[in-house]
Amino acid sequence: MSKTHIISIGFSRRKKFAILSSAIMLFENTNFSHTFVSWKCTNIDRRKVYEAVGSGSRKISNHRFKEKALVTDVFQFEVTEEQMLKIDQFTHDEAGTPYGYKHLVGIFIMRVKNMFYRMFGSDKRAGNPFKDGNYSQICVESGAYVMELAGIDIPGNIENYGMKDFYEMVKKYGTEVPQEKIDKING
Predict the structure, then answer these.
(1) Domain-located, residue 115
(2) Structural domains counted in the chain
(3) By the 8 A CB rule, do 94 and 58 touch?
(4) Domain presence at residue 108
(5) pLDDT score of 101
(6) Directed axis angle between helix 19-28 and helix 163-173, to 10°?
(7) Which of 19, 91, 152, 173 is the most buried (most CB within 10 A)?
(8) Collapsed DSSP state (helix, strand, coil) of residue 52
(9) pLDDT tens digits, residue range 108-159?
(10) pLDDT tens, 5-52?
């Protein structure tokens, strides 16, 4: 029988005020502005965090991540040994991918257009006008690519997902971590 692993997809916000983080929470109507992927690496007995931030996609220690982040929600996924290897390889290979600043602008434009469509009773749905495939990533894309490697089919185009959309998908497929554990994570 193959060994299984647990990966976590979490949501967080900055501990200190940050304009972009605050804008995302306001516009998406959430209490978080960021998503990340985390897992315990048994080879080095450390917890790794994979995320996309302003400097690009990166893999950092859990300790460093928690210095600036306040975790709000965590969902766990069971993966096989083979899936875990693919996730670790992917996150290693993608480290340094540019951050998708234009993607964020595209999500804003998409949200505004869709608001007007709803106001005028239209069923039309706008997409992100600044899709660039896998060239750059925002945190939602990074998390979604890992979910795909974990065997979860992501409906639609991930570049049309905002923070709230991604949260709902993660919640649908993951197992929610109790608040007591999140309080422990935040210290």
Answers:
(1) no
(2) 1
(3) no
(4) no
(5) 93
(6) 70
(7) 91
(8) strand
(9) 999 999 999 999 999 999 999 999 988 999 999 999 999 999 999 999 999 9
(10) 999 999 999 999 999 999 999 989 999 999 999 999 988 999 999 999
Query: How confident is the model at residue 65, as a pLDDT?
Result: 96
Which amino acid would we find at residue 25?
A: M
Per the domain annotation, does 32 fall within a domain?
A: yes
Provide mean pLDDT across the span 61-87.
Answer: 96
- Tell me the pTM: 0.94
Task: State the number of CA atoms in the 13 A half-sphere of 161 facing the CB.
Answer: 23
Report helix angle 163-173 to 139-149, nearest 10. Answer: 20
Q: Is the pLDDT of residue 1 over 60?
A: no
Give the relative orientation of helices 101-119 and 19-28 as an angle to the nearest 10 degrees: 30
Mean pLDDT of the chain: 95
Q: Is residue 125 part of a domain?
A: no
Name beta bridge partners: 6.
78
CA 12/CA 144 separation, integer angstroms? 16
Q: What are phi and psi of 126, to 5 degrees?
A: -85, 150
Q: Which domain holds residue 51?
A: 4-99+137-186
End-to-end CA distance of the chain: 36
